[in-house]
Amino acid sequence: MKILIFKQPFFLCAFTLAVVSCTSPQIVQNSPKERPASTEKDKKLTGFNQNWRYLPSLDNETFINNIKMLAPEVIRYPGGTVAHGWNWRTGTHIKPEPKDFVHPIADVKDLINKTGVRIVFNLDIVYSSLDDQVEMLNTAKSMGVKIEFIELGNEIYSKLHGYENQFPDGYAYADTVNSWVPRLRKEFPDAKIAALHIGKPSTIERQLTWNRQVTEKVRDIDAFTYHIYISPNADFEKRKEQFLSAYYNPNKIPIWVTEYGNMADYTKKGYLDELRKLVNYVESFPEVTMALNHAMVSAGINRSKLLRSDNGVKFTDEGRMFVELAKNRKHQ
Hints:
By secondary structure, this protein is an alpha/beta fold. Helix content is 32%, strand content 20%.
């Protein structure tokens, strides 16, 4: 077994493919209790991450029919990074972009009515309060939306958005999760709740220790989320190796992959072949109970099934591939 040794000023960590052990203090008493990886009750769900600022108007019948052809079981609301700063009352973001579509919370119910999709709500733990996000969920519930899946933030481990100021390490993030979960359990006892893990290795200490620290300190969650993208200059096998080197789930609790895709040039030879390998891998990974590809509709052609510029009425090549995948799943 290959072992990589990383020297830090105050401690020494040894990372293997699936286990991280450090000489720093362990906090195991708060670890989530062990749950079965997958059961009939925890059916593997497929669907799409969706940035709702790019989602065309839901009054277009052709667009709705195309969504039905893609057959998502779950769609993420209001998406990934856009969740931090999303105003669910107005259906807009605090930092608007040109040609944004507007989708207040009532549109979630509209999409459900028209397609039968289920929703994973990605909560804003950066700019919003717990009271505000609970009000969002209760407003959706009052409209008849089932509150089934809740994700606590998006890529808080990232170095791109200043999250380290509010969440300097995995322990700080776990503290926030632990403070939010009791209220969420009380208000929505049937919902499954997920905390964030990082899906690739890093040379940054905050990211290196993130998964271990979150796992050690977080309490009473139902899943960990991972994002898995093939990098522009990599392939599926390389990305698989990276994911396994970062993956940390000693209790084998369920995994939600709430974003995955191929970030390579769409015109690059083998793009769809590499993406198909990733789809098969994610959907067959033992602990994965939810797999959401990115994205159903996006601003550009890369990693989208339907184009915002066409109001979602035309499939990309990637979209046609996912229509075939949907047909295959239906006959399995």
